[in-house]
Write the C-alpha cells for this entry.
Amino acid sequence: MAVERMLRTPEAEQLLELTRELVDKELAPRAARDEEEGVFPRDLFRTLGAAGLLGLPYGEEHGGGGQPYEVYLQVVEELARGWLAVGLGVSVHTLSCYPLAAFGTDAQRAEHLPAMLGGDRLGAYCLSEAASGSDAAALATRAGRDGDGYTVNGAKAWITHGGEADHYTLFARTGGPGADGISCFHVPAGVPGLSASAPERKMGMNSSTTAGVLFDGVRLGADARIGEEGKGFGIALASLDSGRLGIAACAVGVAQAALDTALAYSRERHQFGSAIGDFQGVGFMLADMATMIAASRELYLAAARRRDAGRDFTEQAAMAKLMATDTAMRVTTDAVQVLGGYGYTRDFPVERHMREAKVLQIVEGTNQVQRLVISRHLARRSRA
C-alpha cells in the first residue's frame, strides 16, 4: 500500500518514486531468498550509490544529494519496507560518513567523501565493544601515539558491515579514562593488522553482516584522525542522534511492510462467509497498527525537521527511535496473529519482519537508553 507523503519539492517526489521503483524491482523480489541464504547484497549498495541514494543528506560539492533529513529518512523507510538489511545498511553507511562530513578537514572530505557517497565505498561505524555497549565512554580500544601517527590495538563488537566494509569510522582512546580521552579516526579496510571475526549468528537480518572488528597494531597517520584529539566522544554522540532517526525510519518501514501483508491477507482470507478484516477483532487490530505507524512516522519527521532547522533534536531523536521500534515490534507481532498459522511460516514475510523488528529495539542505543535520554531532558527542563 503506497504511503501518502507530504513532500515539499518535485525533486523529493522523484526521489521517493525512484526509491519505490528500486524497492519493488530490485530489493523485495530477492529479500526472502537472500535472507534465507545469508547473502550480503553488496551489489545493491552500488546500485543505490549509482542512483544517488547513498549520500542524500550530504553536500552536492562532494557527490551528495543535498537533501534535507526529512527527505532522506523517507527514502530509508521505503528501502526498509522492501528489505531491512538494505535500509539499515544505508542508515549505518550514512552514520559512518557523518563524522568526516561534519568534522573532517577540507582535504579529508575532498579525498574520501566522493567515493563514500557514490557507492564505491561502504562504511561501518566502530564504537561498541563487548564490555562497553551502552556505556560507550568506557571503551578500551587504544590509539597510542607513535611518531607522527597512531598505533591502534583493541576489538570492536557488533559492527554492522564488519568484514564487508571498505572503511571503518573508529572511536578509540588516545588519552585517559572517560569521555575526554576518546578520538575519532577514518580507517580504510585492508590496512595491516585490521581483521574481522566470524559473523554473528543472529535470529534475523541474516543478510546484514554483524561481526567483531579487530585492530592488532594498526598503524594510522595523523591525517586519519577526524576532529581534535580527545573530542571523539562528542562526535560519536552527534552521529548517534542522526543515526537514531535512521533506525526509526527503518522501524516504520518494517512495520508498514507487515501491515501491508496483514491487510491484504485480511481481505483475501474468508471465514464464516466474510473476509476476516470485516470482523472487529481483526479490523480493530489493523486500525491500531495503522495508527501507531502513522504516529511513529510523524514523530521521526518532526525530529528531522528540527535537525534540518539547526535546532537541538537529541530528545526528539530518542523519542522517535523509542516509539518507532516499539511500534515495529508490536505491529509485526500482530501481523503474525492476523495471518494465524500462515503467519508463523516462511511462506509469508511477517515472521521475518517480526524477527527483524526485535533488533531495532537494541541497535544504536537500546530503548532503555532512549528512555534514560528522554528522562534526563525532562529533569533538566523541570529544574530550569
Observations:
- The beta strands are 123-126, 142-146, 149-160, 167-173, 182-188, 194-196, 210-221, 225-226, 270-271, 274-275.
- The two ends are 46 Å apart (CA to CA).
- The chain has ten helices and ten strands.
